[in-house]
Amino acid sequence: MIEVTNLTKRYGKHLAVDSVNFSVSKGEVVGFLGPNGAGKSTTMNILTGYLSATEGDVFVDGVNILEEPEAVKSRIGYLPETPPIYPEMTVREYLRFVCRIKHVPKTEMKDRIESGLHTVGIVEVYNRLIGNLSKGYRQRVGLAQALMGNPEILILDEPTSGLDPKQIIEIRELIRKLGADRTVVLSSHILPEVSEICRRVMIINNGRIVADGDPTTIGGDLFDASQIVVTALGDEQTVRSILSAIPGVTNIQPQPTAEQATEVLVESEKNADLRKAIFEAFSSRKVPLIGLRVKNATLEEIFLELTSGVREAE
Fold first, then answer.
1. Domains, in order of start, for the chain
2. The pTM is what?
3. Measured between alpha carbons, how far is 38 from 103 in angstroms, rounded to an integer?
């Protein structure tokens, strides 16, 4: 659906995007992450045709955006970080205006608007001035405009920026719903949100893609130790003595817990799986083991590891 090859963007001597390559298949919901200044928004603006690339190619459904920009733009719905809305218009007037600039046939305009209103949940504010709407409703209006062209691809840049927790949950559910039958590329600084919505994550830093994969496994090769959380019905000294005797255990850290038990984080050599050995050790000492789970790195930890200043300097 989207194919990006050797994408490069320079602003004078500044290299904002550096030979980026990636593809997004039909029906994927992809989180596109990066710190400020990493090249994230520049890349997304090139994908939408808002900016031109210095070098490289972007194909959408086999069509080159440089050669046929109008054909590509008709396939894409774009919600920038600040929704392109007009506060002096009513929602009805604005969506009709958007339909006209997207060349929606008059015979389809009414149905297209009705579908957008129901999809994003703004039927009740249809005749209200956009300037009088809450931030959450304005964000929904922005999403509605992105849908007016009935696009196959949605590109959403910080769609929950500035919203309260309730509004964030509502927009998150809406994006999940939209992703059921569309390709979605989503940018957000709220990393738990990306983990919940996206089945794939790309991280960009210093203009280059530094990670690409499933958010639950993307950091597998980044850290030097494997971690397991152990919860047992025994005092800390006993739990430590059992674990310390297991070959491969390199560190034991107590963890806070609401259980009437001892919980510790056990570190071992990278890619080692000590769960069987831990189970057998507690069983042989007749100390009840009530919890045993692998602790994977969070997306926040992975993001910081890949984009930290220390790593950039290496």
1. 2-213 (3.40.50.300), 225-296 (3.30.70.3190)
2. 0.77
3. 35
What's the pLDDT band for 312 if we cut at 50, 70, 90?
A: very low
pLDDT at position 226 is 82
Q: What is the pLDDT of residue 163?
A: 78
